[in-house]
Amino acid sequence: MVLLHVCASVVNSGPAGHVGAWWTAHLIESATRWCVPVFVMVSGALLLSRPIDSPPEFYRRRAARLLVPLVVWTVVYLALRAYWARGIDVADLATSVITGVPYYHLWYLYMLLGLYLMTPFIHRFVASASTALRTWFVMIAFAIASLDFLVMFLPFVPYFVAGHLLRDMPASSPAATLLATAGGCAAGIAIVGGLMVPRWDHIAWEVMYSYLNPLVIVMSLCVFRFGISQPLKSQPAAAWVQRLAPLTLGIYLIHPLWLELLRRVGLYGSALHPAVGIPATALVAFSLSAASTALLGSLPYVRASVR
Predict the structure, then answer these.
(1) Could you give the CA distance from residue 38 to residue 220 in angstroms, rounded to a whole number?
(2) For 236-252, what is the HEC assignment?
(3) Residue 105 · residue 5 · CB < 8 Å
(4) Burial label, 162 (beta-carbon count in 10 A; 0-12, 13-18, 19+)
(5) What percent of the chain has pLDDT over 90?
(6) How far apart are CA 199 and CA 60, in angstroms?
(7) What whole-number distance in Å separates Cα of residue 179 and Cα of residue 290?
(8) Alpha-carbon span 12 to 180, nearest angstrom
(9) Rounded to 10 degrees, what is the CA torsion of 98, 203, 82, 257?
(10) How far apart are CA 89 and CA 266, in angstroms?
(11) Which one-letter DSSP state was computed for residue 268?
């Protein structure tokens, strides 16, 4: 996700005058479009596999974990936007909250709120439905969601259920096949998107980068399936995952702040050639975000805003 956001500024600048740099960023972004769908599938694999006693009880437990960071970081980023703009446009800030995008990455929390509201009912369905019925649900839901992006959480319902479905399915494809398919999809996104840009400009990557683009859907499903079928055998790697796992929400929430600060001191995706600048910026932002989250998570009164 951090890589994807670092790439965005380079990709949005267009290929004119910097074709090699733009293609580098475009290739990296094309290969990382699975990140949000996989986040949603992980949530579905975990939440839909656990017992849910009643909707009120589920809402009470999840609200404590979601509403605090949603409210806190909405306020933080609205304040930062007002500060950086040297003024407050109340109507603009209010509109961004109503539409669920107070800052470019916070839409995910607002979308997750909608998914959580539907989870008890989706849970009841998947608990009683056969594998075949759940498979049909995922396919039809993807088709419906692709037609309507007005309800923010709706396009991610099929990913949510797909996470639960793939978690329980026996392995049927070799790991190499999954990776090759995901790589082929990434190449397709990059090539078709790049060829469309001269004629369609921003519309090209809005279409190709969409989380409901069939290539993104297949790539995401393959990456998720590969991830759950490959247990970590290295103890040091497993230990690092255990340390980082509690920090993931905070890293997601904080990293745009560090990206903006790094940009202001001269470190961003195209500060060097993107082949170097993008991973370097992403690594520094990720590290600073992890350290910040660990620090905030150790403070009693702000811990709930990042975990």
Answers:
(1) 6
(2) HHHHHHHHHHHHHHHHH
(3) yes
(4) buried
(5) 36
(6) 50
(7) 28
(8) 28
(9) 100
(10) 28
(11) S
Asked whether 244 and 290 are in contact (CB, 8 A), the reply is yes
Residues near 117 by beta carbon (within 8 Å), at least 6 away in sequence? 59, 153
For position 151, what pLDDT does the model report?
A: 61
**DSSP designation for 271:** T
Which position has the token pair 């392995």?
171
Higher-scoring residue by pLDDT: 278, 148: 278
pTM: 0.84
Q: Any residues with CB less than 8 A from the CB of 275 and at least 6 apart, and which?
A: 24
Per-residue pLDDT of 45-96, as tens digits, reads: 999 888 887 888 888 888 878 888 999 999 999 998 888 877 777 888 888 8
Residue at token pair 């004629």: 199
Conformational region of residue 284, where left means phi above 0, alpha means psi within -120 to 50, and beta covers everything else: alpha
Task: Say how far apart CA 38 and CA 223 lie, in whole Å.
Answer: 8
Chain centroid offset of residue 139 CA: 21
Which pLDDT score is estimated for 51? 86
Q: Could you give the CA distance from residue 39 to residue 36 in angstroms, rounded to a whole number?
A: 5
255: tokens are 């990293």
Say if residues 179 and 221 touch (Cβ distance below 8 Å). no
**In which residue are the tokens 């999954």 written?**
178
